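hey so u asked for the seq, here:
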Amino acid sequence: MAKDINQSKNKRRGDDAGNALDEIINELSENGTIKNDARKSLSELGIDIDKIKMADVQQERFLEFDDGKIWLLHSTTSISDRIRILYWNFMQTKKISKDKVEKCYVVYPDNIILEEKDAWGKFERWNQKKNSGLIDVPIDGAISQSEVLQLAEDRQYPFKGGRAANKRGKGFEICTARTLQNKSNLIKWSSNQRSMTGKNYLLYELIMSKVGIAATDIESITATCDEKVIGKTKYGGKPKTDVVAVIKMKNGSETFFTLSCKATYSKVFDVQQLRADRLCKLLKITDKKLKNLIELAQIEGGPKNLRKRNINKYNELTVLMKPYLEKLYELAFSGKGYETDEKQVAQYILCRDNDNRTRIKIYTVKEYIDELEKRVREKGPFGILTWTYPSGVKKEKRELVFRVHNL
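ran it, structure tokens below
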């Protein structure tokens, strides 16, 4: 009887992990990182299954990239003796379809890293043996569900800037929204069921712990990163909110929280672009002298030019801007002050380390500003924000482009 219960729990865990991996594959497809068609089988992708004696390969999940190359993914919650069968499956598949199959990975759920140290240790020791050459296997690594996202993005978008950066950023937003509304995550978080693995569970727990609503009070969570749903600001621009999560409580009430997602390799990045006159209007600046100095900062196009050409004006602007810095920071990081829909104002800032995308931090907007205050040593007229101007724009049509250091 006990054996049957354990087998049932293990099956539920395995199914939950597999479903989570399916969601991740769908996210990668939606974002254009891969071109998977759920209707296609491996045979239809050019892999001759009939020549592979162990037909279980047909059941493996896969990623198909734009160039036709394929990664095979085997979802599991443990390294066991059954992995030897997988060695054979993948070895035969690579041998027969070497022009198609580029990588083969074993994929484990994120929650194992936090909750099952022994199981995670076995995956890590297996990777160490493989990487050191102690075992020669056709599997390219044992990776977490989050690492599937990272490795697939790196493979498809090897460059750091431009379109690749936009794709990575959008992928992070999609992942965050889908993770928040994943039902298994909520069940696991509210009941701590070990038979549930969840999807990107470490990210889910990080966010929900910060938000601070009791798990047992929540009926459901819906989340979106759809720009059409979130909408434009009053001035037609993109709001600071990237993800909106609506929480339905068990008592029938509703609440929500909003996230600004930051995922960039850059040491500094743009956070706000607007003309000097609009900035003055939003910050309710009426001092004519300060208005003129902000206009001058816009014309000069950056702190270096203003300091070099008129150090007195630079110092004067620094003094007069001090009472408005808090409002400026709120405008730049949360969007507060735009007279906009409250769901377009970011309450939290979620930061991903692009060199290690499993390393994510969350801040309230105030915490984020405080952290920047500590780290930014050289502050100018606009405090922790520096500024530049849009490239290729004539001097008389310049705008202020505020930039900030990456945490």
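The chain has 15 helices and twelve strands. Residues 1-5 have pLDDT under 50 and may be disordered.
lmk if thats what u needed
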